[in-house]
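Progress against Task 2.4 (sequence-to-structure conversion) is shown through the following example record, which the project officer requested during the mid-term review.
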Amino acid sequence: MSENNDFIYGIHPVEEALNNPDVGVEKIYMRQGLKHSKVSTLHELASARRVPIVETPGKKLFEMVGKVNDQGVVAQLSGVVYTELEDWLSQTDVSGKPVVLVLSEIEDTHNFGAILRSAAAAETAAVIVPKHRQAPVNATVFKTSAGTAGMVPIIRVTNINQSIELLKEHGFWFAALDGNSEKTIWQEDFDAPMGIVIGSEGTGIRQKTAELCDFSLSIPVSPKVESLNASVSAAIVLFEIRRKRLSQ
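Structure tokens generated for the chain above:
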């Protein structure tokens, strides 16, 4: 579990967190006298999960999260529950050709949150992240993901390369997203259990990790544009896979 205690704010993000059993919610702070159609829903969800709601002066909420549109609701997170790779594999039907996204040191929290949102929307089977040099699932990630953090299993591993090798033993094929690759995502059929590896903007994919991949793929972009950021790249490739599979 994440060790990061953090706050999220706003009625919809807090409701999403309460609806997601993989997101730990410690406590909810609600502005005194708050009137909103969702107040009773929040109370019901919090009661079901035994999360205390504390009525709090608006000044106290400001001290917690600053000058933001908190809508009178702030939740303290205890973190997202991470999934163990071996547990995930034991519960996954590889014959269904699942797609996993492997993030190689994505340290920007906004990018990470956007990637999790795209992964959830594209029905990605899991997102694998390293324990080190990786953005935590904190309030910024949760807000950027629009509450989808935790909808897709997040697998945190000590060694990305060993995890790729294990998945390959279970029938997965791995593609490194590389802007210099001659083969594009349009030319790949993705007709197998797939792992897509995306590197950070700064250093890209580590050499050993890239060597473990079965092939590399690029996203066709205008020569006037040098590259796309990690979250945009992830969204494009995940939805290209989804488009091809839905059309089969």
